[in-house]
Design a protein that fits this description.
Length: about 475
Amino acid sequence: MPPLPPASRTLLAGVDRAIITPPIGIQMMGYVFQECVAESVERDLTATALALSDGTATAILISCDLLFFQQPHADRIRIRIGEKLGIPAAHVLLHATHTHLGPMMPGWRADSPEQEEMQRRTLEALEERLTGSAETAAKRLRPARLGAARGWTPLGVNRCERLDDGRVIIGENPDGAVDNEVGVVRIDDPSGRPIATVLKAATHPVVLGPGTPQISPDYVGAARDIIESVTGAPVLFFQGAAGNVNPSCGIGSGGPEQYDDLRRLGALLAGEALKTWAQIRTHQRRGPRRILQSVATVSVWDYEPMPVASAISLRVAERRLSLALSPLPDRAAACRELQNFQEQVEKARAEKRVAVLHCAMRQLDWAQTVLDAIDSGEDPPRRDLVFWALRVQDVGLVAVSGEPFAELGLEVQKRSPLPHTFFLGYSNGCLGYLPTPQAFREGGMAVNESIRNYLLPSRLTPEWGPAIVKTSLEMLRDL
């Protein structure tokens, strides 16, 4: 990275974008029971890197059209970017927009040798492009100004629906919590020309459902295209607390109507984002009023430059929090579970039922994970969450490596000491769903079944949600 001006008294920003669309034929990742490989591309997947600096500290924020970053891939990529730019790896944010129509990555599940080789090459190309894009963004650092505002749009609906028989399914709960706030940060050069836009919303990108054999960033790409056509600057989309929130149109059924929903939801988000963006002024404001006398008496306002902060300070922090999972089952029960799923795999394979086989194989991997955890001797087992926070002027961002429920994000944003706070999930890894204490009382996929998909040996506990809120607020206050 080129040397920065010493103790700059202004914000510096640079941006770059890379195309990260994987090859056709790769196994897709987002729906466990999805049968198809990628047959075409709805629109390209992208990675957008934003470099921010105050002349002393530099942060790199990257938004990628992926389901999430797995470990150890996330840590390795952050370390590589940090070494390339000469900054701490902890100053790098890797964020996934959480599209469910992206590529499978190595290590998620066993696959054919051909698929595993394709996935390995895709990950290598991704790492190269992210590192190069981060370096280019840093080379483009130039004086900038920043402003933020919030809008609102009915993008999502709570998806924890309770049926009459007491089961909680992935459906629609119009009375449930949802964060439909649209957060916008406008980053301009000193003349007001846009450099980049940061956009935060909180809704699962599943408008295109599991029957869709296309690579796609989902509604995120549709919204991004509209915003960029108006502003002329790249958009970094950040996914908020969407763990229990689906799009208001529902999950795509696979028919042509889902593409109409894609356009509509993209326009809905883009329209609110542009309305909010247009209200943010970074370089000038209306000055004192003057009275002119013509046929009528008329008041006019001249514009004057916005005051510049005497010293911009950019601060970044990372924290890893270790928490206990629930106690493990006894070994005999775990062995029975393993045998049960082994039989399901064999039956599905014999019957050539691809979707059933994918689910059974994932559950077999989970059962082996439980048995391995029991044999390790740690009971209850522990897992780490990665927290990442940034503050510049009156804007704060805090991110966590999981799928947080909407209530957690709403609580952090409500209690934050900063007027503009973005709470994000899907960042620097993804441990699994992060439910609220109430969700543990109610049950449902995110509390129970999801641990199998994420290969967690046992459930989280109700203490996790409050710990996430507490840690997020502590980091924002410390910054």
